[in-house]
Each structure stands twice: as C-alpha cells, then as structure tokens.
C-alpha cells in the first residue's frame, strides 16, 4: 500500500477489515484524512477492551491524520446491543456527564486532545425531531436486513428480549457518521470487528444521502484462550485505564501474566517498540519468555500511566515474586472499624477491598485454593480476620491466585 499509516497498522496487526482498502489507501496517501472513533459513556473510565481503538487514535495523530473522538452522550442513553445478552442499565444525565469527563481524562493520557476534535453526539441526537428522523433516515433501513445483524440475530435466537429502544441504536450510529461527514468532512470510521455492521450502515446511509464515499475500518477483537474478550483478569476484575480504578501495579501484572501465544501480538499492539525489537522478543522460550513479558508490561504501563509508575510497578513485582519482599506491593486501605472487635469474614474482606468482582467469585476462589493471607491458603470462606492478624505495621498480605498480591493496611 502507498499509505504509510495503512502499512503501519497492517504490520502491527491492527487491520482486520476495510470496506474499500484500495480507495482508502489512495485517499490516505494523498492527503490528511479525518477519522473518528466513538466511545459510549457507560463508565467513568475506559477499560483495556478499548485500548486498541485508543492506540489507533494515537497512531493516526502521529501520521498526521485528523482525529475525531465521539463521546456517545446520546447513544449511551440507549446502549449498544452488540455482544450483549441483555439491555444495558439506563443511566441518568448526571451520571453520563460525569462519565464523559472521566473518559476525557483517560484519553488525554494517550493522545493529544488539543490536536483532536472532541464531539458529543448528544448535541445533535437530543434535538432530533423523531418523525422527521424516521422520514429522512429510517426510510433507508430495511428491517429484514437489520434482523440479520449479529447483535440482533443472537438475541432473537436465544429468545432474549431486544427492546425497540436498542433496535434504534444502529440507526443513530449510522446517523453519527453522516453528521460528522457533513460538519467535519469525516471520511473514515474505525471500530472493533464487532462494530462492522454498524459501520457499514453509516457508509450505506452516506451513499444514499449523496455524500462523498465514506470508509470503514475495523480492528480485531482480542480473545483469551478461553474464548472471552480481553478486558478482565481470571478473577473477573476489570482492567480499567484509570489508575484510581485499577492501579498501575495491577495493570502491569495483567500484561505480565498474558498467555504465551499473545506475546508478539501484544507487543505490536500495545507498545511502541520497533518491529525489529519485537521479533527478538516474541520467539523466546521458557524462562526467557517471562523476561519478554516484563518488557511488554513495562512498555504498556509506561504509555498508560507514565514511566515512573511503570518502573515502580516493575520493582514491586520483582520484589514480591523474586525477592519475597512485600513492602513495595500496592496498598489497599481499610478502616479499623470495618474489621471490628469480632473480626470480618475473609469473603467480606476481599469483597470490600474491591479486589474481586463479587462475593460468589470470592467463594469460588477459596474453594479452588486460590486465595491466601500472608502466603497461607484459606480453605474456609467463613474464616474471620481480626485486628490481631495485622502485623505491627498494620498490614496483611492478600494473594489472589498465584500472580496478584496486595497489602491491606489499617487506617
């Protein structure tokens, strides 16, 4: 290809599908292209499942293309049904607004917001006249075809409810692309491969409304060996990109503990090491592969949390795992009154420290000998932890599985 950007993302394994690769190559090799990626505002931070898209924004900027970040203040009120077994929780305006601010803070760690166009689709979707919208946009959508999109078909095949509200989502996302094309000369939408149908809808709508040719490009979904989307630890803990929701240490550990067969791909996708450096690392075996994973973890953490946090996380991990020194582990603080005179159950302790997603998950962890306190396996989910169990410095060490460790410190 002639486009430096497209060659780059192909070599780094970002490129999965494109609606017209030859046409996009010609366009991107001759001029700067305006491209957009959208994020719904369902949480106060993005998580690692959005990291490929964020890295795409980062690379678009480096190659001189103009980026539009669309925050879905409007579409969040509906919720994308793609890949969901049930409708998302309906969020109120204040929560959506707060989440929008949090996502902006997350994004500015990775890209220059000054060099991007930030838009919120609530600005146009909130003011739509519904009848006019159906007449101007809805007329171009075939119900027969919409029923065959995976996001719809999967729900219907499982006999799970799909509300009319959610059914409208694909119309609104298509309309977003048209709106950005008209107002910002946006020609390219990028998303995960599960967004292919929604992206194609926007391109076809643009064609029917006689806009310049629009293009769609998707990135691969990263799946674990168990067939689950990338984004959570084995214990069900979401890997958020906000350090208050997921510490740099836990972020570092996530990449350190990836499956061996993902090493080369993750180095290409989530670090900025050269391809030559990556080739030297991805074919290492046995103990050497663990050293390559440390490099991956440090380089990925550096991009998200900064060089100092990445080095501190690496030092803490090496101190704990290799030197048996717990002093540098990340701290989780708990008030003494929550322990109380009678003590607190190990299930409640692990749950209130937010280290595992649910009490059920804690019990399963204990049943599988996956939880330790001060390196001793806990086998009884009714066991109590009392104030006397904390050492003179006021902390105990909790271990979740073999690779996740924290200090719980009394306040």
From TrEMBL:
Position of sequence motif 'KMSKS' region: 229-233
Motif ('HIGH' region): 41-50
Binding locations of ATP: 232
Main location: cytoplasm
MF GO annotations: ATP binding; RNA binding; tyrosine-tRNA ligase activity
EC number of the protein: 6.1.1.1
InterPro entries documented for this protein: aa-tRNA-synth_Ic, Rossmann-like_a/b/a_fold, S4_RNA-bd_sf, Tyr-tRNA-ligase, Tyr-tRNA-ligase_bac-type, Tyr-tRNA-ligase_bac_1
Reaction(s) catalysed (UniProt annotation): tRNA(Tyr) + L-tyrosine + ATP = L-tyrosyl-tRNA(Tyr) + AMP + diphosphate + H(+)
Keywords attached to this entry: Aminoacyl-tRNA synthetase, ATP-binding, Cytoplasm, Ligase, Nucleotide-binding, Protein biosynthesis, RNA-binding
GO (cellular component) term, any one: cytosol
GO biological process, one term: tyrosyl-tRNA aminoacylation
UniProt key word Nuclease: no
PANTHER family per the UniProt record, alphabetical: TYROSINE--TRNA LIGASE, MITOCHONDRIAL, TYROSYL-TRNA SYNTHETASE
Family: Belongs to the class-I aminoacyl-tRNA synthetase family. TyrS type 1 subfamily.
UniProt function note: Catalyzes the attachment of tyrosine to tRNA(Tyr) in a two-step reaction: tyrosine is first activated by ATP to form Tyr-AMP and then transferred to the acceptor end of tRNA(Tyr).
Name of the molecule in the record: Tyrosine--tRNA ligase
């Amino acid at each position: 290809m002639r486009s430096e950007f497209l060659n780059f993302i192909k070599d780094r394994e970002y490129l999965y599908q494109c609606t017209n690769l030859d046409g996009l190559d010609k366009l991107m090799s001759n001029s700067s292209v305006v491209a957009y990626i959208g994020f719904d505002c369902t949480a106060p931070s993005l998580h690692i499942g959005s990291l490929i898209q964020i890295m795409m924004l980062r690379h678009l900027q480096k190659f001189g293309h103009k980026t539009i970040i669309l925050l879905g203040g409007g579409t969040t009120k509906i919720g994308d049904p793609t890949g969901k077994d049930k409708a998302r929780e309906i969020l109120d305006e204040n929560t959506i607004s707060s989440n929008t601010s949090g996502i902006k803070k997350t994004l500015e760690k990775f890209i220059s917001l000054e060099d991007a166009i930030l838009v919120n689709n609530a600005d146009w979707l909130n003011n739509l006249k519904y009848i006019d919208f159906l007449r101007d946009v809805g007329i171009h959508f075939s119900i027969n075809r919409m029923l065959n999109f995976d996001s719809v078909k999967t729900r219907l095949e499982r006999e799970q409810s799909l509300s009319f509200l959610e059914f409208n989502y694909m119309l609104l996302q298509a309309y977003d692309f048209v709106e950005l094309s008209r107002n910002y000369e946006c020609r390219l939408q990028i998303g995960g491969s599960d967004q292919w149908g929604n992206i194609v809808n926007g391109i076809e709508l643009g064609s029917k409304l006689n806009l310049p040719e629009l293009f769609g490009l998707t990135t691969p979904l990263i799946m674990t060996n168990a067939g689950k989307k990338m984004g959570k630890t084995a214990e069900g803990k979401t890997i958020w990109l906000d350090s208050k929701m997921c510490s740099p240490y836990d972020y570092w550990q996530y990449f350190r503990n990836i499956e061996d067969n993902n090493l080369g791909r993750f180095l290409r996708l989530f670090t900025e090491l050269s391809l030559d450096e990556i080739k030297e690392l991805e074919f290492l075996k046995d103990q050497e592969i663990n050293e390559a994973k440390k490099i991956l973890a440090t380089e990925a953490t550096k991009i998200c949390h900064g060089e100092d946090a990445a080095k501190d996380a690496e030092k803490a991990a090496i101190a704990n795992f290799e030197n048996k020194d717990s002093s540098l582990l990340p701290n989780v603080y708990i008030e003494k009154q929550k322990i109380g005179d009678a003590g607190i159950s190990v299930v409640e302790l692990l749950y209130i420290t937010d280290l595992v997603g649910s009490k059920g998950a804690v019990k399963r962890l204990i049943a599988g000998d996956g939880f330790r306190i001060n390196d001793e396996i806990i086998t009884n989910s009714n066991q109590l932890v009392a104030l006397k169990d904390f050492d003179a410095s006021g902390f105990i060490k909790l271990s979740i599985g073999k690779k996740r460790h924290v200090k719980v410190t009394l306040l």
